[in-house]
Design a protein that fits this description.
By secondary structure, the chain is of the alpha+beta class. The chain has three domains: about 50 residues, no CATH class; about 130 residues, no CATH class; about 200 residues, no CATH class. The chain contains 14 helices and 25 strands. The strands form seven sheets. Strands 13, 14, 15, 16, 20, 22 and 25 form a seven-stranded mixed beta sheet that branches. Strands 17, 18, 19, 23 and 24 form a five-stranded antiparallel beta sheet that branches. A hairpin with an 8-residue loop joins β23 and β24.
Amino acid sequence: MRFKVLQDGRLLDTLVNKKFDPRSDKNRAWSATLEKQGSTELRDILKRIDASEAQKPRMAGDALEQAGEDVIKELRGERDDSVIQNAMDDLYSLREINKDIDSRWSTAASQAGLSKEEMLGASNIKDRDIQLVGNIDERVPEALNVKWEDSELNGARINNETRLHTRFERNPVTNQQDVVPFIAEGENVPLVTQFGLVGKDIDASAVENMDSDEFLGKRILQLAGMNPVRNNDADVYAVDLLDKVSGNKVDVEMLKSRELENNNTVGFQVYTEMAPDSMAGYRDVSLNESRNIASNMVAEMKPMIKQRMAASDLSIVEAIKSLEREGSITSSDGKYGPTKGKLLKEGGNYVDQLVQPVVSNRDAALNLQTKQGRNDTRKLVMPLEGALLSDANAAKERLADVRGEEALSQLSLRPMPGNGGSRPSGKLYLDVPANDRNFVTDLSALTPAVRQLFGKQ
């Protein structure tokens, strides 16, 4: 045999007694030349080396370590021993850093319920190397995307994926940006998101036993650098989340992408469970009946609200209170006045911000189908199409300031069929332009890490 594999990984050409690196492009070209001459020995050795290295994941910088070793070998011929020692110290530090990154990724895989092999099978990394995952932009890498077999809900396809969230961390030795697991503020384990149907594809623990939309709202805030904690576990009517960084009370509201695109507005809830006195009291009708009743309620209330505001130059709240006093508008059951919405609850102190996951109309409809009854939870965790953060306090100021005709242009009254047709009514919203930065922030532009939750990162 002409070629011999040495302990340091190089090959010895016994014909000329010369050592060489089998990984270099030059020597691989030499292998092709020898093969044309009738010798396949070098080609077969290189194939075995490739097969062996393919089984060893390049988790975080093996190529850099090799480059460091090559530099040291070259420096051995220099007289300045301090230069050699510095290079050796850097190589040692680099190896320790890489061990630490490898360990963190092993922890992330365990947190996601994955083997290391499954993690390295992520669809958006090259050569099974996490450091070669795609970038959202120059500041943020993509989450590792491990795809599973899709499932179905009522004949509709359900996307099943595991996302291991990532961030960049500067390597003090190389000054490059290493990809490491993302750990949210206030947490001590890597952040993972599972897409799928709770109870079928994923466990309730994967959404922290929350409604799926509230869980997605929490994930958005975590990736935006906040520290949200659940606030409604003891009282389902309490605001959904509390951000421990700012102290803000944050509620979650899903937005449908088609409506957002068509209307280009974001609504803040002023009143809910409103009904004209002549139609109040419907309950536990079929969902189709409830939709029709709710639409008819809205059709009857709209002109009376507009007429009252325009004729008397009233604010929105003043107009509704006036109609309530005279008995024209009541609650959905007819026993009380219209229920105060998020801007008015608790004397206006209920909520500070709204975090709004944007999903397709299809996914929004499927998510509603997963809730069976008032006390059940929504269960579909789906990739997002957008993520907004809206300022409820700014909306409260607008609500108090606008009156009459000016206020009318900023109102929308929407039918509310209730859960499964339980109680048809209407909801009154204050609408603001979705691109008005005084009220609405596009989190995907401000903090691109939230795009790690998007269908297309």
